[in-house]
Amino acid sequence: MNEEKKSKQNIACLSGTGVTKIFGMGKEKTVAVDHVDFQFREGEIVSIVGESGSGKTTLTKMLLGLISVTEGEICFQGKPRDIKGYWKKKEYWKGIQAIFQDPFSSFNVFYKIDQVLLDCIKMRGGTRLSYEKKVELMTEACSFVNLKFEELTNKYPFELSGGQMQRLMIARIFLLKPAILLADEPTSMIDACSRATILDMLLKLRDETNMTIIFITHDIGLAFYISDSIYIMEHGKFVESGPAESVILNPQAVYTKRLINDVPKIHEEWDLSTV
Amino acid sequence: MGKTMLEVDHLKTKYVTRFGENVFAVDGVSIKIEEGKSLGIAGESGCGKSTLALSLMGYYFAPLHYQSGTIKVDGVNITGMKPDEIRKKVLGNEIAYIPQAAMNALNPTQKIFSFIEDVIKAHDPGVTKKDIYDLARERFEILGLPESVLKKHAVELSGGMRQRTVIAISTILSPKVLIADEPSSALDVTSQKMVIKMLKNLMEKGFIKSMIFITHELPLLYNVTDEIMVMYAGQIVEQGTAREMVFDPLHPYSKGLMGSILVPEKGAREAKLTAIPGTPPNLKNPPKGCRFADRCSYAKPACMLHQIAESHLENGRMFRCYLEEKELREVYRDE
Amino acid sequence: MKNQIRQIFHSPKFKVGFVIFAALLLLTFFYPLIVTDDPLEMVGQGNFFKPGTYISVTEAVNTDPYTLNMNTSSGRMEKNLSMEERMAMADWLGQFAGLSPKEMDVTDADGLVSLWKEHYDSSSEQKGLIAARKKYFSRLDKKITGLLEDRDILLAEKNKETGELSVKETIPSTSYVNVSDVGSRRVFILGTDNFGRDVLTELVAAIKTSLKIGFIAGLIATTIGLSLGLIAGYLGGFIDDLILFITNLFTVIPSFILLILISYSIGKNARGVMMVAIIIGLTSWTWTTRSVRSQVISLRNRDHVNLSKLSGHSLFRIILTDILPYIASYVVMALILQISSGILAEAQLSMIGLGPATTTVSTLGLMMNWAMSYSAHLNGDWWAYFPVIISIALISFSLNLMNTGLDQIFNPQLRE
Q1: Which of B4, B300, C43, C248 has a Cα at 20 to 30 A from A190?
Q2: In this model, does residue A122 exceed pLDDT 80?
Q3: Which domains does chain B have, with CATH numbers?
């Protein structure tokens, strides 16, 4: 890694201190995310690993600005985030985008695929472009994810396979080119064989645009494979964080140790006596 | 060599959609399991592995239909039996089945013990409540489940505990074959490990004579079963011991599948993930030749033309490819 | 979309419901084209004429008669008195004339009639008999008297100057006319009602009006329910609490009581068909709101809605394109049920006299109300109310069947 790239990586493009989300009031109060601190650097691939109920989805939604933050502060590109009102949110979403877990429910099944891509062009200020130019942009985006636009145009989402839909989601990100991409379990509903394709495309996207990719996953093997740094989440708190190698191969927290120990392995023995 | 517990010969089943289209989900599957052995079936969603699990019980109801082939449980052919006969004589005491969402199948108004009572009384109405309780308590103790569970309702148990309870209930009659279809996929890793430990325990203690474990998670399969079958588009494309299958796959599809394994181990970051382009064929109208041919990077024109026969090796391995073992190893080595 | 419509017509339940409903609808369109009479024209002078063909007596007399040698006095009683009537006569004789059962033989009609003539007196006090039964016996007596008359009927003419009557024609008891020779006749397939109106024509008009009330009430209720449900479900927070509070308020007050109170308070003069439809619509939106709200809440957190937000779409657009299409099938089902319950609500209101205060149109409820207030159900005039009940039942049965059919298509869990 050269010096220039290294210095670029040190810029925190999304950070948070004491970020908390509390649902409900009084007796029914549940703390979904409990005072978490984080710092995601530009061009980095970060994984947030947690099991169901750990609060990782709530954190994702807070980062995306889809739900409000109860307490704490999130800084976006060095400045405290201000997303009050529709216009400011719209501006914020030009810089941060997401891919969701279930490709089948990510699309509005009543609209054709073209609509999704045209919306992206519109969001990037391309409303006035000629139709040919728009088609050119869409074709480029589709070919980036190894899809053919001619085969997809005028189709409805349910006519595609899960892998194709998820690739289309990446094409959408390619058109938008946000600074940060939150990928919420993007491969968990996809067959193992297509998983590598999706991951490769995300890595390519990072390499070409220096995008920060935040992976939200429960699959610790996947997190280890893809990320530069890992945050382990348990009951709304980060119990461990750091570079992927050190977190996975030399875990310190009890929870991380248990998690890694309980995942079935191939080269190492899977010790059944420890449960 | 142990006694053969389950022998399936060229089983073909289909299901019929609401528009009357046939989906040939299980197309000529042969399985042989000996006493004390476990077999894993791996495959991606839609390859027919869940349909196979249902078909193996011999209990067919719409939309699933039997076409041809035989299923022998401990030497007894069950394919000719009437559904009622199968329900009474086979299900529960010969073959037990655990579906993926089994833990949500318990009636919340009943206590755990009453399920066990129902299961046992359905097969032997003469047993007294006391005997059943003693049997249940003993079995629960061996399996590491607290006795207090017997008196609880399903809703009082956590997901992992509920799943283990369901397994204990369905194996209470010590079936010859246990078919587990993704029994731990909906659980967190620790609960998954507990479920696996319990299944292994059941095998060791002889409460189940053999097991078929179906999942899409290959590392899990590697750790649980003796042998692994890889299923693709309704057919078994390769079979071998777990070690052979994971470290030395022969069929191009199995090779792709094994190359996509992700585990948190040393060196896993450096490994190159393999990707297979394309999508599996539509089982309403399966291709004439090799079903994997259009996605296979080693495919030859001949692959598309003929149905590919199973090739059996001396050590009991089976694969379904136009190329021979030698040729396959050569093309892999050249890469 | 096309596929779904095809699926809907694959559902046998929907098909049956649709056929019944379409048949009723077509009836209301085409019947008035064939029978052009005013549905509320008072034809009959009197209450509840039986179903049947009515021919003009004058014309019958003036028509060339045919002589048929049959049915002279002997045996006439046997043929014309039904066993039921004979049993009733025996009952009466036993109860009020003190005759023992042994003296009467219901198989011997002539004997029974002579006993009847001897003892029956319509003015006698018949203790324990309801008015309708008394009427029945008096009608029976008239019938018997008529049957006993066996003389030729003389038609007389009055001389204009002298005022004397002279025989013009004699009609012997053997003379018959062919019904088709008589020009003036009217067929009342379902008889007439209390005002002498043709029940069938009136019924068809009533079905039309009731369907109209149902549609308007259903549309109003669904529109209000849908908009409130969408707003409450999607926005959440304080607005949700407020809308839910109002909805709960309307839910705890039984809507029928509300309906009665409003109908009563707006007064008789303002209560037209339209007004009743609007009132029904305004009181029955609550459950649509509640169910739409819960559907929207479950949709609100779906990924495609989140993605739409991230694409910078406005609130209005998200509701219109990402929420509404997903609940459209549900709303159509709700509308169908609202139409059905609107028709029933109108019938209920009219039954207790709070329906449309009008005599210029008929509704199913009003027909029931008229039949009831003129004691049709006590006098056994079934044609005045039974067809109405059947129509109401058919309408709500067909609508509910269509709804169940749709439900099976749109809710995969219910699929067989």
Answers
A1: B300
A2: yes
A3: 4-104+175-277 (3.40.50.300)
